[in-house]
């Protein structure tokens, strides 16, 4: 492993800081729209990564 790995604490701090930027500038009723959108994008990213890993295992890295 390299020294450039990101630790969970760093990720949590970055997300918390990002949320802090919205507090006070975004109405709370609209804030949920941003959070739900980010959660949906994260879900899509995870699903894509799982499918990609499965396809790599089945077919390898070479394009067809």
TrEMBL record:
<dbReference type="InterPro" id="IPR022749">
    <property type="entry name" value="D12N6_MeTrfase_N"/>
</dbReference>
<comment type="similarity">
    <text>Belongs to the N(4)/N(6)-methyltransferase family.</text>
</comment>
<dbReference type="InterPro" id="IPR029063">
    <property type="entry name" value="SAM-dependent_MTases_sf"/>
</dbReference>
<dbReference type="Pfam" id="PF12161">
    <property type="entry name" value="HsdM_N"/>
</dbReference>
<dbReference type="InterPro" id="IPR038333">
    <property type="entry name" value="T1MK-like_N_sf"/>
</dbReference>
<feature type="domain" description="N6 adenine-specific DNA methyltransferase N-terminal">
    <location>
        <begin position="11"/>
        <end position="61"/>
    </location>
</feature>
<protein>
    <recommendedName>
        <fullName>N6 adenine-specific DNA methyltransferase N-terminal domain-containing protein</fullName>
    </recommendedName>
</protein>
<keyword id="KW-0680">Restriction system</keyword>
């Amino acid at each position: 492993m390299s020294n450039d790995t990101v630790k969970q604490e760093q990720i949590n701090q970055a997300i918390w800081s990002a949320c802090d930027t919205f507090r006070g500038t975004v109405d709370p009723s609209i804030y949920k729209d941003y959070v739900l959108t980010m959660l949906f994008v994260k879900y899509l990213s995870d699903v894509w990564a799982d499918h990609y890993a499965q396809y790599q295992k089945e077919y390898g890295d070479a394009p067809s």
